[in-house]
Design brief:
The structure is a single chain. Helices cover 24% and strands 37% of the residues. With 112 residues, it is α+β, with helices and mostly antiparallel strands. It has a single domain, classed as XisI-like (TATA-Binding Protein), CATH 3.30.310.110. The chain has a 5-stranded mixed sheet, with helices on one face.
Length: 112
């Protein structure tokens, strides 16, 4: 399996783990994953009702661009980049895209 195929598989596995941990369907809010493998976009979102308020929140959004993992949205406690690093993905292959491009240089990750 090539590197990007391994990364895709790992991203789907991590998102499914986060979805199962954060699924609060008993409380009216469910966690869902969406995997668009053709366009390399992977998402976890929360949907449901909390009392009288509608919940529809993109919780994690990752895409692949220029052979790197771009983290576009991340509301996890420790950050999904931590999970990726634990899985031995190199920092230079992860972009924290939720940071402004000028500020990415101050992170320990790829800038683009």
């Amino acid at each position: 399996m090539d590197r990007l195929a391994q990364y895709r598989s790992l991203v789907m596995e991590i998102l499914q783990e986060h979805a199962s941990k954060t699924d609060r369907s008993k409380n009216g809010v469910e966690s869902h994953t969406i995997f668009d493998t053709k366009q390399d976009r992977y998402m976890m979102f929360r949907v449901g009702w909390r009392e009288h308020n509608r919940v529809h929140t993109p919780f994690l959004y990752i895409r692949f661009k220029n052979n790197k993992i771009w983290i576009e949205e991340d509301w996890t406690e420790d950050g999904i980049a931590t999970d990726l690093l634990r899985a031995n993905i190199e920092r230079e292959n992860i972009v924290l895209a939720f940071h402004h491009p000028k500020k990415r240089a101050y992170t320990e990750f790829a800038t683009s």
